[in-house]
Amino acid sequence: MKSGILFLSLLGFLPLGIPTCPVPCRCATNIIDCTSKGLTVAKLPVAFRPSSEIIHLGYNKLTSIPSGLFDNLKSLQVVYLQGNPWECNCDILYLRSWLQWQQNRTLYRDVRCTSPAHLQDRIIAYLTEDEIISTCQYWYCNLALLSQLCLVILLFLQGILVIFIIVYLQKFRRMTAEARSTTRDLHQNVDTWVSSSRSPYNSD
Questions:
Q1: In this predicted model, what pLDDT tens digit does every residue of 115-158 receive, in sequence order?
Q2: pTM of the entire predicted model
Q3: Is the Cβ–Cβ distance between 89 and 141 less than 8 Å?
Q4: Of the candidates 166, 87, 173, which has an alpha carbon nearest to the alpha carbon of residue 122?
Q5: For the chain, what is the largest distance between any 2 Cα atoms, rounded to a whole number of angstroms?
Q6: Cis omega (within 30 of 0) on the bond before 116?
Q7: Which of 45, 122, 183, 194 shows a CA-CA span of 20 to 30 A to 67?
């Protein structure tokens, strides 16, 4: 009985020891083929089997590689990365670092920047850290400019709102003055009518 329970327990843990092929890729032995699967950074497999030797990630929609994705793949020989729209900003630092550690960088001459414009078509493996960091600074500058633009628009809308309130208050004051004037006229008319009704000609 105990041996049967132990056997079932081992079966329960067995799938954990056998890495499966990540969806939507195709796998054969130590090769993982994810070519032309429409993969983005968000859809990229979170991990690959440790025994992977060749990984195909070409012709997808990858703009960067998540930090540490290839670090634990001790048997990895090559990753095919061509045909992706790489964005050479702060997020590309991990891929650039990984490429620089590869013995044969010539395999990665087709891994080039798509953006920003001043780095377009540059080989990622040969980018300097300063060039990438400068794009990060441009990004922060653009964010700052966008924030300032939003602030100007907000102030403009507030100015319009203040003008609207002032115009409304002036109109309200005129309406109040007219109402008071009408009330005074009405009281005067009532007083005149009362006075006329009390004249001697109307007494018994």
A1: 999 999 999 999 998 888 887 766 555 665 577 678 778 888 98
A2: 0.60
A3: no
A4: 87
A5: 127
A6: yes
A7: 122
